[in-house]
Amino acid sequence: MRMVKENNHNAWYLYGPLIGRTKQECVVESSIEKFYPQGSLLKSDIVIPNFLNLEILSSRFRITNIDEAIITAHVFIFQGSKVVFIKKLF
Fold first, then answer.
1. Whole-prediction pTM value?
2. Contacts of 86 (CB under 8 A, 6+ apart)
3. Host domain of residue 28
4. 90/87 Cα distance (integer angstroms)
């Protein structure tokens, strides 16, 4: 990603996290899960988390309603993402 952006400043990085905590989802080890909020998320131009991933990536609080999800999306944008698209919200 870094090399692509260095060679093409117009390139965008789309980050669609696959983090899960149930048997139906991809389960990621906790050490790797901790990397996402400080690593990939901060470098993404577009982030498309589902509801669970939104909570994991925010690493701040449990999201219980749409207003909190919107606030979290604004935090991601403040940190550098240009677009946040939350799928499977509730």
1. 0.70
2. 48, 49, 50, 51, 54, 69, 73
3. 2-84
4. 9
